[in-house]
Amino acid sequence: MTRDEIPTPALLLDMDRFERNLERMAKHVRAAGKQLRPHAKTHRCPEIARRQIAAGALGVACAKLGEAEVMTRFGIHGLLITTEVVTPSAIRRLTRLVAEAPDTMVVVDNAENVDALARAAVEDRVTLNVMIDVDVGNRRTGVQPGEAALALARAVVHRGALRLRGLQGYAGHCAHVTGWEQRREASRAAMAPLMQTRARFEAEGLPVEIVAGGSTGTHDIDVELAGLTELQSGSYCVMDLDYRRIGGRADDALTEFEMALTVATTVVSVPTADRAMVDGGLKAFSTDKPFPPEAVECPGVTYGFAGDEHGRLTITDPARAPRLGDRIEFFPPHCDPTFNLYDRVWCVRGPRVEQVWDVAARGRSD
């Protein structure tokens, strides 16, 4: 099958760029003496996770229990569930998952949750690997650094069915700070309390073999922290325009990783000389980020949403006006929610379709 035979709209993965991205990140973390557990919320695709692990990753991080269940079903282990699992039914699902994949880890930020996890683990005769989730300024989940984190860690180590593994601190508010120096300053300030908390754990003899954090935007910043053991960067494997615009260490764009993901569309109408319509609208792209001109892989046109199923191309260069039936590809502004719109990703190498991978954890909001 060729690229031009793919029914549109469709999600395409450029395999050459994707494989180079995996290789570059693997080389980067090895050189820094760190490990990588990339966040699978980017792609929700077990085959991509398998490729990341083959390239050297420890496993993958999962935003939700449902994602981890799917990854386990496809044989992916080394999982870290980065959002707290709190309801009785979810905790029971977690213990069943751990019975199948004992190295799975879960985060906690509340003593009541620690008690509930410990009771379930005893009842189901499993040992739960636990990380203390620390708020480093993202103001989402996480216990406060310092004494509050230590108190929670003490509660974990006093429960025989729980095994404390370390700390998680995700500074998501720093990931998209524009300008490398500004981003480095912001991330250093955010991660300092996590490093101080690690030092207090060590002084008290609390287990802290893992300290996890970092994003694609700070992949070359957070590895400078001696106390950080592994990165959770996710978007690097496919990239998107929102990350590209933040700038790299020596460039106005973050270019260490290549734009490997596109949405392919077909021109279905050319009603006027200055307008053409494609079959990719609100259902084809994430809408949480701006749609910049550079998203369009077609010079001389700009894109705008024109409803659920249609996108409007404004033709700015008549000499490059698209024709009926033309294929036009777009770089997504935000890769994570764009992935979640598709059941499959078409893996292409040049003009050929090489494989088709299921986005198997798509829609697992639990």
Q: Give the class from helix and strand content and strand pairing.
A: alpha/beta
Overall morphology: elongated
Q: Examine the secondary-structure arrangement and name the CATH architecture of the largest domain.
A: Alpha-Beta Barrel
The average pLDDT score comes to 96
CA distance, first residue to last residue: 36 Å
Radius of gyration: 22 Å
Question: Would you state the CATH class of the largest domain?
Answer: Alpha Beta
Q: In this structure, how is the largest beta sheet organized? A: 8 strands, mixed
- Helix content percent band: 25-40%
Please provide the count of β strands: 16
CATH fold call of the largest domain: TIM Barrel
Give the CATH H-level superfamily of the largest domain.
Answer: Alanine racemase
Order of H and E elements: EHEHEHEHEHEHEHEEHEEEEEHEE
List low-pLDDT spans. none
* Proportion of residues in extended strands: 15-25%
Summed up, the domain count is 2
Oligomer: single chain
Number of helices: 9
